């Protein structure tokens, strides 16, 4: 083992047990099974990729450690290829989807019939709580984001168990096209999270594990024999960091994150701060120096708050909390120093959202 890798694995980056924001760690090479065991020791997971931003981050993170291929958490082994988002197997079956070639397929109702689509397509969707149905038609989301939205505000995406219910759902849909809770997939991510990201370059039917390869111009996913050795990339934490390039004032950024993701970024402890530093450093977003975070000052009392809690941990510039009456009332993180400072809430700046990861039930 080289000294660098030894350091990486022996915890120079100290991980406490409960991380909120996702943070990454590259480990020395091993087969997929061993990677799995190492994860369990430290409550980590082999990484899940959610989108191209994740892939770009991963590429620059591992290239910095002079590595080009890493194990990813995707592997064959979903219990039932076809299952509802609440974990139930497909019993009442109106699906025509061709699942034989191993693609991830999600079902929508189109013109009153079930039809399979690429799960990363954005569509309206129908949520269910007990025996009530809610058609969300003003927000088009990919299947996993729709799943997340339903879990957060209702119960789950709608799942259909018999013809009576099918007719009720169709009636409620009133001719619209919308996602329902059925996903076909023979692959699952190690941490069981919901992700619609796939960009296969090589997919060999006999191999059950996967890696991300960054050797070619565009990074891509490739199947691998599970007993090959490879460096695993581990992650920890259940909240993703999402940098939005678009420029908005603080209030608009706050609303945007709430609608599109979960909330404007909160940095609640030193682990969160480390995670955001790591993400900004390697994801290298195309944004200016100052980036909105969910930090705001009470104009009446002068203390600083996150959207739903007071600020306890802090990382202010010069270690100095901006005080009234000279302060501006909204908070940014500075891209290079990673320090926080105050800004006029009406400035149009890029911003950082956070998104709760949604886990599958099967
Ligand atoms: C990822 O990186 C590629 C190549 O550098 C770039 O073209 C692409 O825009 C990046 N994607 C995102 C979402 O940042
Ligand atoms: C990795 O990042 C460090 C710190 O930014 C930098 O000094 C080093 O040159 C980078 N290494 C490679 C191989 O890119
Ligand atoms: C898989 O689906 C079958 C019916 O299609 C069901 O009997 C079985 O319980 C399901 N397995 C799991 C683990 O959900
Ligand atoms: C559902 O029906 C389709 C089409 O008849 C069939 O190909 C598929 O295997 C069925 N799925 C299950 C889980 O029974
Ligand atoms: C919907 O279905 C009806 C009857 O099957 C058909 O006449 C109509 O063209 C379909 N509409 C679309 C948009 O596919
Ligand atoms: C699904 O759509 C995404 C983005 O449009 C694309 O990259 C991917 O290849 C598609 N997947 C399949 C199976 O067609
Ligand atoms: C259809 O399924 C729903 C939901 O599981 C259930 O409440 C209802 O009793 C079922 N209806 C029939 C006719 O089986
Ligand atoms: C392990 O990580 C999960 C997901 O990030 C978290 O919910 C759980 O509390 C962690 N367990 C411990 C013992 O820290
Ligand atoms: C913070 O420190 C910088 C450089 O160290 C200095 O130029 C600046 O005046 C300080 N700001 C405040 C508010 O103390």
Automatic annotation (TrEMBL):
Keywords per UniProt: Disulfide bond, Receptor, Signal
Superkingdom, taxonomy of origin: Eukaryota
Record's signal peptide: 1-18
| Pfam assignment, any one | Lectin_C
Q: SUPFAM superfamilies of this UniProt entry?
A: C-type lectin-like
Q: Where is the C-type lectin domain?
A: 31-128, 128-227, 245-354
Q: What is this protein called?
A: Macrophage mannose receptor 1
Looking up CDD domains in the UniProt record yields: CLECT (cd00037)
The record's section on InterPro entries has: C-type_lectin-like, C-type_lectin-like/link_sf, C-type_lectin_CS, CTDL_fold
Q: Does the keyword Signal apply?
A: yes
- Disulfide bond in keyword set: yes
Lineage of the species this protein comes from: Eukaryota, Metazoa, Chordata, Craniata, Vertebrata
């Amino acid at each position: 083992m080289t000294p660098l890798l030894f350091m990486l694995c022996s915890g120079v980056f100290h991980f406490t047990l409960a991380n909120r924001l996702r943070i990454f760690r590259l480990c020395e090479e091993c087969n997929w099974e061993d990677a799995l065991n190492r994860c369990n020791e430290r409550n980590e997971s082999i990484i899940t990729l959610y989108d191209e931003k994740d892939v770009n981050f991963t590429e620059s993170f591992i290239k910095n450690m002079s590595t080009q291929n890493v194990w990813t958490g995707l592997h064959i082994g979903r219990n039932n290829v076809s299952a509802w988002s609440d974990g139930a197997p497909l019993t009442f079956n109106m699906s025509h989807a061709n699942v034989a070639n191993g693609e991830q397929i999600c079902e929508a109702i189109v013109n009153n019939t079930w039809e399979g689509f690429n799960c990363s397509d954005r569509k309206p969707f129908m949520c269910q709580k007990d025996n009530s149905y809610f058609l969300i038609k003003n927000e088009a989301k990919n299947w996993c984001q729709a799943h997340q939205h339903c879990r957060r505000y209702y119960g789950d995406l709608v799942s259909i168990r018999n013809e009576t219910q099918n007719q009720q759902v169709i009636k409620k849909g009133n001719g619209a096209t919308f996602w329902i809770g059925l996903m076909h997939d023979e692959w699952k991510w190690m941490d069981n999270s919901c992700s619609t990201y796939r960009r296969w370059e090589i997919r060999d039917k006999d191999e059950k594990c996967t890696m991300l390869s960054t050797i070619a111009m565009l990074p891509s996913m490739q199947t691998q024999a599970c007993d090959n050795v490879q460096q695993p990339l581990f992650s920890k934490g259940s909240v993703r960091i999402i940098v939005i390039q678009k420029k908005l004032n603080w209030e608009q950024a706050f609303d945007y994150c709430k609608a599109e993701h979960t909330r404007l970024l909160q940095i609640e402890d030193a682990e969160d701060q480390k995670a955001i530093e790591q993400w900004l450093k390697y994801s290298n977003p195309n944004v200016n120096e100052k980036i909105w975070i969910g930090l705001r000052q009470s104009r009446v009392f002068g203390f600083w708050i996150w959207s739903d809690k007071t600020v306890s941990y802090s990382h202010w510039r010069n270690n100095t909390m901006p005080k009234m009456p000279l302060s501006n009332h909204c908070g940014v993180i500075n891209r290079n120093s990673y320090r926080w400072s105050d800004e006029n809430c009406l400035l149009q700046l890029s911003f950082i959202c956070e998104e709760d990861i949604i886990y599958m039930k099967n």
